[in-house]
Amino acid sequence: MNVLVIGGGLAARAFVNSLPPDVSCTVLLKNTRCSGNSRLAQGGIAVPLHPDDSVEKHWLDTMNCGAWQNDGERVWKMIETGLSLLKERKHLFDEKPDGSLAFGREGAHSLPRIVHAGGDRTGSYLMAAEDFTLEKSTRVLEHAEAEDLLIENGRCTGAVFRSRGKRYEIRADAVVLATGGTGSLFPYTSNFPGSTGDGQAMAVRAGMKLQDMEYIQFHPTLWVENGQTVQLISEALRGAGAVLRRADGSRLMKGVPGGDLAARDVTARAVDEERQKGQPVYLDIRSVTQIEKRFPFLYAEIQRRSSGPLLPVAAGAHFHMGGIPASLEGATAVPGLFAVGETACTGVHGANRLASNSLLEAIVTGTLCAESIAENASCGLGGITELPPPIRTESPDLPGLRRRIHEGLGVVRSNEQLDRLIEFLDSCPRSLEKTTALAAANMIQTAYITAIAAKNNNVPLGAHWKENTHEPTAAETTADPVF
């Protein structure tokens, strides 16, 4: 049996490492093994391992944060399965001097349940622990960028990819999309460069419909200087005592339910509103103790830049709740095609993702997808064929494209802004996916689908917030908690 994995984050690695040894697997990496979003994850991973915690409490926090637009049954299964999988990895996480786990707390969590590794280097530690199995049955191709899916008689049978100026067609019995999110569509993002919605765009070109694309989470604390993102500042820092302040020193989140640990959509809107007035927002880290030990990644950058204790922050694109409709096992509407991690929309996040549920989803979906494919996939397809090289063409202005996308799909939206964005994207060149402007093709395709979804949804909810539209009541947003 031959499996093709497109992407190399935590979901992809959990998938590969859960496959039976007799499965032949090829992994296409757009960049290198040391790149990608998963490695950048700082805060940790949410899991109900605390003595006072439970699957039910974690479930309630996830549902509340998602405005009860989540699939409750899948949320429960994700947490329950994740709890089991992370108990096996318990040795990876930081401990207190007494040997118990050191839990952190982040926004919209009712109690501490974030486990972390290496302080604020959880993603890096988990990626190292889940490194691709170096068995003969696994082949990892770096700098191999997927272009499109192969669909034959309604089934996905492989993909077209390019590497070092050449194009290839690769066939497989099953294709797993694990290409991550869409943060690189925006000027400010916590994402690794190149997060241009590749998997989502390929799915659309294959005739698939995407789900919940209007729900894009903006992280409220990206450290920015001179118009550039320095790095994400983990929400765990606010859990440890850091506070957001206006230029005059007053607390930005004073009087807001949850304060500095309010849900990300609430905090991001507050930060964005202040900056839209032309006023800076700062994260005051003076109250955080032992920062060099608890947040070594951030501390090293502060020392390198001689910055602090007031760090200028902005809200930036962080996580896309929408994507390719898929089950927790990764199954999609197209036989032979699977989607895991942020590329997929499993319904577990609803209108807004709960902090640190992303790594949990990655491990769970990757693992369950491998088990499902091993049980159900057919066998027989394989091989690589060289194709004509991509057509050379001039790429559109990508920084300008990002600015236009942000104007329409930023933290707070309006139908007027969305109309302008849709009109602009309609005027952009089409059919660029077979040219050297593949990144632009994917950005335009994904932004267009997202803008249409945002325009069609006039209910401001969670990470999708519109001006001059009907704000729902609690009764309208709360679903029946019995799944």
At the first level of CATH, the class of the domain at 2-142 and 319-386 is Alpha Beta
Oligomer: single chain
How far apart the termini lie comes to 36 Å
Beta fraction: 15-25%
The fold-level CATH name of the domain at 2-142 and 319-386 is FAD/NAD(P)-binding domain
Average pLDDT for all residues: 92
Helical stretch tally: 14
Q: Which structural class best describes the helix and strand composition?
A: alpha/beta
**Low-confidence runs (pLDDT<50, min 5 residues)?**
478-483
Report the strand count: 19
The CATH architecture name of the domain at 2-142 and 319-386 reads: 3-Layer(bba) Sandwich
**What's the shape?**
globular
**C-alpha-based Rg, rounded:** 21 Å
CATH homologous superfamily of the domain at 2-142 and 319-386 - what is it? FAD/NAD(P)-binding domain
- Strands of the widest sheet, in order across it, are 6-2-1-10-17
Helix content: 25-40%
Biggest sheet character: 5 strands, parallel
